[in-house]
Amino acid sequence: MSQIMSRADLQFLLFDWLGTERLFERPRYADHSRDTVEDLLGLAEQIATGAFAPHNRKADLEEPRFDGEKVELVPEVEPALRAFADAGFLAAPLPESVGGLQLPTSVFNAAMAWFHAANVGTTGYALLTMANANLLTVHGTPEQVERYVRPMVEGRFFGTMALSEPHAGSNLADITTRAEPQDDGSYRLFGRKMWISGGDHEMGENIVHLVLARTPGAPAGTKGVSLFLVPKYLVDEDGSVGERNDVVLAGINHKMGFRGTVNTAPVLGDGAYTPGGRPGAVGYLVGELNRGLPAMFTMMNEARIGVGLGATALGYTGYLKSLAYARDRLQGRPAGATPDTPQVPLVDHPDVRRMLLAQKSYVEGALALNLYCARLVDDIASVEDADQVRAAEKLLGVLTPIAKSWPSQWCLTANDLAIQVLGGAGYTRDFDVEQHYRDNRLNPIHEGTHGIQAQDLLGRKVLLDGGAGLGLLAERIRATTARAAGHDYATQLDAVLDRLLEVTAQVAGRGTPAEILADATAYLEATGHVVVAWLWLEQLLVAEGREGAFADGKRAAAAYFFGRELPKVGPMLDLLASGDRTTLDLDPDWL
To answer: Which of 55, 100, 102 is nearest to 79 (CA)?
Structure first.
């Protein structure tokens, strides 16, 4: 059995629960079948195990280096990514019109779970490239698609997203990078970016940066932000790579974990290179002027679901490794046993089983959440009924901040428990579980922090449309509890959902945005637990009547979640209902 990912769980979720085979009846996915999906999952397992996992520790210990001119990575990264591209994974999710395989997102995410779990650092370069290519496919010109997307699909070019700046962080309204229009329709960009993953390296032939910047006279705030394509090397009309563009690094950031993906501080237009004999980084407008953020959110929403998947996979592999250790490690004796009684495996101790079962409930619940969201993406792309598409879009909007943040919080907790299961050994570099924790600690931060996702969920996705999205989610949950009528879990979930809707109405009626959003994080965490409980009930219904360890494990994990996790929602909702002003009224001088 693999300690990277569970193929049995992926198959259960894709085929037994989500009914993935029905997707192949739709024109968009008609070229695929269950056989091709099984082959793809097997290939993902093979490449992740053989080319990604072996250098995961090395890339952590020998983190990227910058000598003032070039970024150096461990040599195993590039051939692993070449194997990934040659197997068709870079092309897998993209449309056939740009050379992609047009694979359902749910299937692709299931395959990508293997790579995230095996080596999240190396996988980062591929994910950024695919998200970049997808954005350009949607918003770019035919020329941009031909010159930049096709080479990315082929694995020759890499991609990044360059949003944040040293002074602005997550507040994109305050970015100051400027883009000056030129007579030939291009722009010259000047400014500094920060926290840019994959921002420079020597892999491939080129790096395609998608950069947020302002043009002269643009409106203040986010309404004045535009999106630009800025290549590391200019690309000639015939597609050949030309001279170096004026994009260099001020340095790289040294991270707690996730070290394999270099994180950079790029500078645009400082005159280190002068393409065409003039200073400034050459860039090309993507989409409409001053509409950069809506275009970028094509990439960011995809990235947020991807962050949730990465967090899930890291939690999952930590769980599998701690489970294997607990089964093999002899330590202690049963309570009440005499000193001459043989030692038993760690897994025989109830408290260790508690920690393992908690991990299982988190990671398997998170995987169901991610694949459910991916299935909504598939429905949006392939269903012909406009009302069904709008419903899927609205539901996905509500679930996206949860799909990003819930796994980032609770699969990190799973990694913490994995370390605890190993005890002192888990705190050493001799075992992978400590690295998985460090790698996963980034996920509550990047692509929108935990708190930002909370404000997005409550302030935008729930309240901005009058609660329609939340109402649709509630309908889906009610449909499941109706199918499970008479089950204690269904009764419990209905009651918690009633309370969530009641408290949401109370919060919505408060006077100011500050009062409404003060405890948005509690709202996100409470709603996330309700959603994951719903998905556990869904899995239980599928496993009903089945025998064997796999189905029994599903029942045990669901029992843990309903018995020990869902009750945590009550105190969070009580806090929200109370209108507590502790943080609102706190004077910063008191801290």
So the answer is: 55
Residue 447 parent element (H or E): none
DSSP 242-290: EEEPSEEEEEEE--SS-TTS-EEEEEESSSSS-GGGSSSEEEEEESSTT
State how far Cα 158 lies from the chain centre. 19
Catalytic residue among 302, 447, 525, 565: 447
Dihedral, 496, 498, 503, 504 alpha carbons, nearest 10: 110
Mean pLDDT split into 10-residue runs, the chain, 591 residues? 96 98 97 95 98 98 96 98 97 92 96 98 96 95 97 97 89 92 97 97 98 96 96 96 97 97 97 94 97 83 90 98 98 93 97 98 98 97 96 96 98 98 97 98 94 96 92 98 97 98 96 94 98 98 97 98 98 97 96 97
520-543 vs 549-560: helix crossing angle, rounded to 10:
150
pTM summary value = 0.97
Domain ranges of the chain: 462-591
**Rounded distance between C-alpha atoms, residue 259 and residue 120, angstroms:** 9
Considering only CA atoms, give the Rg of the chain: 24
25 flagged as catalytic: no
Straight-line distance from the first to the last Cα atom of the chain, in angstroms, rounded to the nearest whole number: 50
- At 138, list the tokens: 């949607």
Q: How far is CA 489 from CA 255, 484, 529, in A?
A: 42, 8, 14
